[in-house]
Amino acid sequence: MLLTIATRESRLALWQAEHVKTLLQQQGHAASLLGMTTRGDQILDVALSKVGGKGLFVKELETALHEGRADLAVHSLKDVPMELPPGFALACVMRREDPRDAWVSPGCASLEELPPGAAVGTSSLRRTVLLRARLAALGRADVRIEPLRGNLDTRLRKLDEGRYAAIVLAAAGLKRLGLGGRIRRLFSTDEMLPAAGQGALGIEICEGRADVQAALAPLADQATWLAVEAERAVSRALGGSCSMPLAAHATLEGGAMRLRAAWGDPQGQPRLVTAQGSAAVATQAEARALGQRVAADLQAGGARP
Ligand SMILES: NCc1[nH]cc(CCC(=O)O)c1CC(=O)O
């Protein structure tokens, strides 16, 4: 069948859409891209959490699906709101790329090596609270964490212009664009717990498009799908907003899922509330139940939306 893929036009979004296009072609379908600019791509001078959050990157794509100009939209799952608007469905979650955060710095191999008063750039509240907690543990209250917006090329350019000593961003995006060589160090998931869905691609369709759903089925990765269902359930239970400094990361081995989550107050003490849980998980409902349990533990520990 002929499938039109709605995509943002950043280099990373286009890479991801091309990747899906190639996989669909390998399945014997004809596929083409419909590129578009979203509000999230236009507003670059304000922190995302202040201008409406994740939905900004998906709304225009959903309009194209709704109007029948496209059959599917490819998203970084991390940017997809926890609740899709009525009439839309997450039809496919693909195998996850590296979920870790990366340290990119021309001068410093790690946090420990930062010169006094150095600035570290990052674009998310999650990274901000995780970095503040690590810096506090190192006794480095002098290090400043400063906002960094824009697509990957823009962020790297701001680093190269010397505005930051280092930046922290998702390894997955860098690797997809062949920029893995810029990574100075990968944080383990214990050091910097990833965001819900980080590194995974999700494909959105209009509900009821059984034909598109069937075409996408071979692209799905069930283990990743179950893991991100658990991660997104944590976020959803806590209000699902991207103005919430929340990390949630699940792994699945031999049917056993381990889910870890962390929350920090961006204005308060550089202290994290953490929770974790394990369960045998074979269905999306079981994955969500584990996510809800871990979210309840976070809230009991003081996390709030
Ligand atoms: N919020 C932006 C965003 N959305 C998806 C990725 C790439 C990594 C991924 O697929 O999770 C990035 C860049 C980043 O966080 O540094």
Automatic annotation (TrEMBL):
Its EC number is 2.5.1.61. One of its GO terms (biological process) is protoporphyrinogen IX biosynthetic process. Pathway: Porphyrin-containing compound metabolism; protoporphyrin-IX biosynthesis; coproporphyrinogen-III from 5-aminolevulinate: step 2/4. Residues 225-299 form the Porphobilinogen deaminase C-terminal domain. Its cofactor is dipyrromethane. Binds 1 dipyrromethane group covalently. The modification S-(dipyrrolylmethanemethyl)cysteine is found at residue 242. Keywords: Porphyrin biosynthesis, Transferase. One of its GO terms (molecular function) is hydroxymethylbilane synthase activity. The keyword Transferase applies. Pfam families: Porphobil_deam, Porphobil_deamC. One of its GO terms (cellular component) is cytoplasm. It is an enzyme of class 2 (transferase). It catalyses: 4 porphobilinogen + H2O = hydroxymethylbilane + 4 NH4(+). Residues 3-213 form the Porphobilinogen deaminase N-terminal domain. The porphobilinogen subunits are added to the dipyrromethane group. PANTHER family: PORPHOBILINOGEN DEAMINASE. Monomer. Tetrapolymerization of the monopyrrole PBG into the hydroxymethylbilane pre-uroporphyrinogen in several discrete steps. Belongs to the HMBS family. This is Porphobilinogen deaminase. It comes from Ottowia cancrivicina.
